[in-house]
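LOG
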Amino acid sequence: MSEIILPKFMNIGAGKLDSINDILKKLNCSNPIIITDKTMVKLNIIEPLEKTLTKMQIRYKIFDNTMPEPTASSIEEGANLIKNGSYDCIIAFGGGSPIDSAKAMSILANKGGKIEDYKFPVINFESGIPLIAIPTTAGTGSEATKFTIITNEKNDEKMLCVGPAFMPTAAIVDYELTYSVPKRTTADTAIDSLTHAIEAYVSKKSNLFSDTQAISAMKLIAPNIRKAYNNGKDQIAREKLMIGATLAGIAFSNSSVALVHGMSRPIGAFYHVPHGLSNAMLLPTVTEFSIPGATMKYSECAKAIGIAKYNDSIEDSNKKLLTELKQLNIDLEVPSLKEFGIKKEIFMKNIDTMATQAIASGSPNNNPIIPNHKELVLLYEKLWN
């Protein structure tokens, strides 16, 4: 069994945002800086957090200059602010980007250097400033993972940073914060979490603990994606997606992601495709490539998400899985690369570099079938078609 790493505290359920003060007390912290984005502030989504802190006379500062796809320079700006302030903890509030940003800022503010110094294959153990993660989307599971992904804008490389140092100290998972999430974001983040669960389950690094979390996540996520997409106020669907996303995060943090994520990061870096959306674009194609390497496990995924019966054959289950993943993209109106606005000639020109970066990320090595450079190029080409 692998070493299991989780946040020190996790408060889960409706209204748990109010527990922020209890967590601050447990951490002996009283002067937090909130890391978020401008949308959270502009739309007053952050207001309940501010009211709770103000009610308890907790002083705080808000840094809202995070990027949708965090960059090294945006991280340095926040880290310098934290380093030069008197903040004793960080509250990350928002989707995966603010939380990923806060993880990196926590380390840089405490240890110094550049975020490039911490990228994989370096494994980071020494924690930074205590971090409380509060997700507002049901997607990345970043509130319960030991990873962060930061883009090096000098070469458009998405740098994967790994280790216990990047695990939040505490997490508040309150599904009521997701009611205002738009349809497109709901779809993209949900498929992101489904991808986490599937990849954690079929990964070469999977174990009994991560498998249990991954299967549970699939059972919660898959039947509720369309429901939440079509009705954002569906309380039951929102709750199950939120819990599923956190479980999927726990699963892949204690196993790994694989080829979908390895190929997804360069697409995000080069063309600024949101992470969950690029995962959605890739998931059917990569799954079809990978199934021969883990036929039994993929068939179990099909049964967990509810589109194959337990007496179906492995072959039939896997056919149903591919059909469902393709149909899910249709139902959630996932655009093609062309529909997203990417020019074919530019995409084809960058494929060789993207394949190199995908391999360098390390994630493809966890896949049931490990692709070589040529196979990655062919998969990218197939994705366009």
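LOG (cont.) second protein
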Amino acid sequence: KSGQKNLGRLPLWRLPRPRHCKRKESNMSVSIKNVTKMYGDARALDNVSVEIADGEFIAILGPSGCGKTTLLRTISGFVRPTGGTVEVDGRLFSSDKVQVPVEQRGLGMVFQSFALWPHMTVRQNIEFPLKSRRNQALTPQQRRQAVEAAMASTGLEKLQDRLPGELSGGQRQRVALARAIVEKPALLLMDEPLSALDAELKISMRKEIQDIHKLTGASIVYVTHDQSEALAMADRIIIMKEGRIEQVGTPEEIYYRPKTLFAATFVSKCNLVRGRWEGDCFWADAAAGQNQPFARGPVESCFREAGVCPVRPEEFTMTRIGMGLEGRVVNRQWGGRDIHYKVECGTELFTVYAGLFDNYAEGDRVVLQRREAAREIAI
């Protein structure tokens, strides 16, 4: 059914909760304080602290092995921290001495592998969590209504009698989502749920997950290594590297105001141009015609100390003559809406996103300018 029809089913999410469920009716806030996790001599998490607000969509972003899945599993209760605490709504859930069992945390989990029962139909897979001991207070009617609400919100009503083997990858992912939300959890954890899907399905499923967030109002913690997923869906993004948090901020803050060299290169794919800072003016080492600064504007101290200026690929302009970084086009990839170039400037290789009318061939000599600097010079 369409999203509008699904919204009409929203009152089903107001069903009474089992009497044994002690958490409050609102969403969950999560407080992670100084969490460390050791595996022998290896430090998977290193003094991680972050606050997750009620109803917030948080994406944990980072390369493989950075600790993002370990952090998610620590929140869920699958991993006990070596040090620090995890509190939910002020209640201690995890520490080196306390570990509330996973089944008592009142959360939903969506795994990368979907983890569906192959011998159960769509309806049976979705209904399965409601048959647990913690939901024994639910009446058959309440179970049926909860399953119907979960199927309606994920558009699975017409597929309810199919087995997982008869479904596409996107449909199986929707079943996993419906199963995770059928208990109406206030906290929903997702571990790279779209990594097994093709590019078109990923785009479609992003909208499905955003719709689930709006329908349920649940707090979502979403682990991914795909920066486009994090930027498209999250209220805030946690960037991790080697078990530590590099930066926390909104997608706009992460993209336009990176606070570390890693955040700049990993998320916004910044080129780091070498040179020197004089106040808020940057003079590039390899720029031709040094009578104008290559860039202007305040930057974080880490860029000043490293003697580099972060320039995103779309901030570059290319011309055949003028002042700027002289280079040569060494690679060209047509992308439909724009063209991606690799430009060699001395020993540096820069990535440039240019419009379709800025058509250069491999081997062409070009001059790179920073778009803001070009506009300031023109003014």
